[in-house]
Amino acid sequence: MMKKIFTVLFLACCSFIIMAQDNVIDEIVWVVGDDAILRSDVESQRLYYLNDGIRLEGDPYCFIPEQMAIQKLYLNQAKIDSVEASETQVIQQAEQWMSYVVQQIGSREKVEEYFNKKFSQIREERKEMIREQQIVQQMQRNLIGDIKLTPSDVRRFCNQIPKDSLPIIPTTVEVQIVTMEPRISFEETDAIKARLREYTDQVMSGEREFSTIARLFSEDEGSAARGGELGFMGKGMLEPEFANVAFNLTDPKRVSRIVETEYGFHIIQLIEKRGDRINTRHILLRPKASEKEIEDATVKMDSLYMDLQAGKFTFEEAATFVSYNKDTRNNKGLMVNLKEDNDNQYYGTPKFEMHQLPQDIGKVVYNMEVGEISKPFTMINEKMKEVVAIVKLKSRTESHRANMADDYQALKAIVENKKREELLNDWITKKQKSTYVRIADGWQNCDFLYPGWVKE
Questions:
Q1: pLDDT tens, position by position, 378-398
Q2: For residue range 280-301, what is the model confidence (pLDDT) as tens digits?
Q3: What is d(CA 349, CA 335) in angstroms, rounded to the nearest whole number?
């Protein structure tokens, strides 16, 4: 208790001294428990929001510090409960964001100018921000636990609100697909392998670092920005062919043989092994089909399209016995919604909102009738390969007001979110009462989301 009182008094004194100066460099604007929130912290967060395109409702100098205070409540509880973040994920997400922001703003120098900080400092701040976000999210999951709802709970929710207040369900579709990969010439494959052998020679001779070559030439954009580094992964998280070679590497100074996977051709370098997990770098090159090879595949798919139109066999049979897409082949061509999105209530189902479909498919499906089969078109698949495809629109449910008969899962997700918010709001309100909070003069006159910050 004495330590806490000393800390609070010390922070209060620092705030008074800094605010007493005419030329204010920084100041403590909030204290939550033993943690201080500085004016500079608020300003940095405001710039991050602006750069990320996040629009804030109301005064940012009210909204941002309150959000920081809420986060500190979760982080303080996380320390008590020993909740930690995955350092590998923190590094990966931070590097992805750094690459994105450089591309968006124009250069490292412009990024430094925008945030008025050194590049290394921005990276460390972003890592800490992501680390805290991960801890907060895990803490929220721990606090909420499993929310179990029955159909009666969902029905009760629907009956309690006016019918015109029920949500509008966007148009959804179910799509079947058949794909064909153009043949890749031996000349193209040999040229790809020759380039990878050249990169291997450059690394082994000390002419270039593996990470430098990966940044310059690897076609895996996500890892290329990190010098080809994939982060720590278990065997099951990697393509089998890749994992078999990677987990047999023992010398970080050497480079693997060329490995072929569904994504293309790789060379791999070991960074570190930790038990049953491994961290590697890789360089990926994807062989490209020529225009002639794409045209030949399109002709074959044209023939398949005509046979389907003539009723010689069904679309389901074509998907099962002809399609190159192994993920849909055993599902009679039916696509499954795997779009990573916290708000995607159709994840793991065959239903897609139009914007959730791959862009090339969405453009084709948009004006199709149910049961209609498209003509062949080219698209880039999930393995980043150019393929020729035909699709069939299996079903379409037009946009409508939600109802129990058609939209149980969507309504259930809404009720779960509502219950989740209620549980977290109750926890925050209770935590406010048991946590020391002090807000500097000039920062209190806000319409806070949780009014309990300012004690009467």
A1: 998 888 889 999 999 999 999
A2: 999 999 999 999 999 999 999 9
A3: 9
